[in-house]
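User: I'm putting together a teaching handout on how sequence relates to shape, and I'd like one worked example. Could you take Short-chain dehydrogenase from Aspergillus keveii, show the sequence you're using, and then write out its predicted structure as tokens right after it?

Assistant: Happy to. First the sequence, then the structure tokens directly below it.
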Amino acid sequence: MSAFKFENTADEVAAALSDNIRGKNVILTGASPGSLAFEAAKSIASKQPGLLVLTARNKSLLQQTKDAILTDVADVDIKLVAYDLTKQETIRKGVSEIKGFNVKFDAIINCAGVMAPPYALTEEGIESQFGINHIGPFLFTNLLIPQLNDGATIVNVTSRGYQLGNIQWDDISFKSTPYNKWHAYAQSKAANILFSSALARRLAGRNIASFSVHPGTIFTNLARHLTQEDYDMLAGIPMEYKTAQQGAANMVIAAFDPSIKDRIGAHFDDDNQIKAIPEQFGYASGIENEERLWALSEELVREKFAY
């Protein structure tokens, strides 16, 4: 069980886990200013990691993140890699750039994502939320598995928004179904949970853990597409607001807390505790769903990954 509570911040968690962060090589995606990844990166950087690789689509925004970190921590090694999660070719190029650093990594924290945008397709014709929130991280992570140390950890940031709709297996991209941005968001976040569990099973032999985390309800740049009508639609979902520093906390817990390593594949709720997926949302759990998602994901990236 995690020793941390709802109100703990990423800075507090990093301070408590500093011995487990020191010297570790970490990849953190979506690290633009104003994001949860930005907060997690600052907290991790303060505890002397070995190499901190920050990714996002915009290189200039990544540079702003790096500059902000170096203002407080002058001696941390930070490398920036820009790629676009809507274009699989650029994801592959980003991975090649990371492999060129010639280091093994101890943690991948997949935080990049989008929430409830207007309907759009990725370059490969995949609905943008499913493409950015799941297919991109699926490809990015699997391509980097050979670069992970045994005992490494993979963290996938999900959301309680997975409860807003099941997985539309036969029309993932809403090509024959009217687009519902919250249903699309929900299935992408359910996919994050299933992917984490599937990875944990596949990589258990290398003692590589994988977790999904719901950071909580936080006002960040992720909400840039939301209207008042959208907020009204979410009013029925129980939620308690957090600061960005609090929202970034369970990413750091999942990545570095040795006390939860035996719970590989588990899901962290916003109280920083591991929780089972409720039975009524069974589409977000179970080996059958994990395998169905894995097969679909391999089809959409046109590559198979076997471990």
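A couple of points you could highlight for students: The domain at 10-301 is CATH 3.40.50.720 (Rossmann fold). The first strand starts at residue 25 and ends at 29.
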